[in-house]
Task: inverse folding
């Protein structure tokens, strides 16, 4: 199978450049030309940047080398199976959302593809509006997956497993302590007031005293700062707290 050159692809992108580009990129791997064209037109009409290929080989390489926000994948391709392509992607820890689009609607095939790493599945023939809402739903989910580990100095927080390490050592936090630390880290360098912290870490209906924050910050400090350097949690008198490695006591 002929490998499409990068030049051809960039040309295709330029020619089809859209005024209302959303910045989101979609790869369509589909050998049914008519369908591929309809998808291309519709998705571009929605402001997405779209590439199309008809082969599993190109599809795999493009998906790995380029940063797509979504892959739309047909299962029966002239040079291989979409399911195998999907497995290869996931074996490489590639997390791009994949929407499988196929005429095969049997349960067994669906299960097989979800197990291979599909995020969604749509059976042909389908209604375009349904495809669009699914595409949008998948794209909303996509970016959140990218930053799973937050790091500051030698502190590491894995947002998927909720594991915390300082200097490589596992730190056990309660759910509230974890939420507090995550909120501080997501806003590293910014001062967060006690009421901001309460709104975010406790729920809106919390009616207790704002000094609950001081209590939790003290516990968190004991776990992630005591015995380590630099100290990461900073008290900003009269304002609140922030986390950053720059402060000096
Ligand atoms: Ca096909």
Result:
């Amino acid at each position: 199978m002929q490998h499409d050159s990068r030049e051809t692809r960039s040309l295709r992108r330029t020619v089809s450049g859209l005024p209302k580009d959303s910045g989101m990129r979609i790869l369509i791997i589909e050998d049914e030309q008519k369908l591929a064209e309809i998808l291309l037109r519709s998705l571009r009409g929605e402001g997405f940047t779209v590439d199309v290929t008809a082969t599993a080989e190109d599809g795999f390489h493009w998906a790995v080398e380029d940063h797509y926000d979504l892959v739309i994948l047909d299962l029966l391709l002239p040079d291989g199976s979409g399911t195998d392509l999907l497995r290869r992607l996931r074996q490489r820890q590639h997390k791009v959302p994949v929407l499988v689009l196929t005429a095969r609607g049997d349960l067994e095939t669906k299960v097989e593809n979800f197990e291979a790493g599909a995020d969604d599945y749509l059976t042909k023939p389908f209604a375009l509006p349904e495809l669009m809402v699914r595409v949008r739903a998948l794209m909303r989910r996509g970016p959140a997956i990218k930053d799973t580990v937050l790091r500051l100095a030698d502190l590491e927080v894995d947002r998927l497993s909720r594991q915390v390490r300082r200097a490589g050592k596992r730190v056990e936090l309660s759910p509230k302590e974890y939420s507090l630390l995550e909120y501080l880290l997501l806003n590293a360098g910014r001062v967060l007031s006690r009421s901001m912290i309460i709104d975010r870490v406790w729920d809106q209906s919390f009616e207790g005293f704002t000094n609950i924050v001081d209590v939790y910050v003290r516990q968190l400090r004991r776990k992630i700062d005591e015995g380590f350097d630099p100290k990461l949690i900073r008290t900003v008198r009269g304002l609140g707290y922030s986390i950053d490695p720059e402060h000096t006591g």
Observations:
- Residues 31-32, 74, 76-77 surround calcium ion (CB under 6 Å).
